Amino acid sequence: MSLLAFTSGTESKPKGVVHSENTMMYGTHAMRDLIGLTSDEMIWGPSPLSHGTGFQWGLRMAVTLDATLVNQNIWDPSRRSG
Predict the structure, then answer these.
(1) Per residue of the chain (82 residues), what is the pLDDT tens digit?
(2) Closest CA to 29 of 69, 65, 66, 71
(3) Is 56 exposed, middle or buried, given 0-12, 13-18 or 19+ CB atoms closer than 10 A?
């Protein structure tokens, strides 16, 4: 098991969903290939690593690519540049 995610129960009762390393890596490799990522990339991580998005598309992607991961410390939509 690589990930145990819990559903919200929108269409059924909430439950735990198990993802194997194979299912998680398939998504990582498919996205890498789809957008042509390489180890030269700098991966921007706006989501916390404890969130599925931050884990999969931040940490896992950077480790898989051997790329640099830059996590966004604070997100405040009220603060805009320019």
Answers:
(1) 888 888 888 888 999 999 999 999 999 999 999 999 999 999 999 888 888 889 999 999 999 999 999 999 887 778 766 5
(2) 65
(3) middle
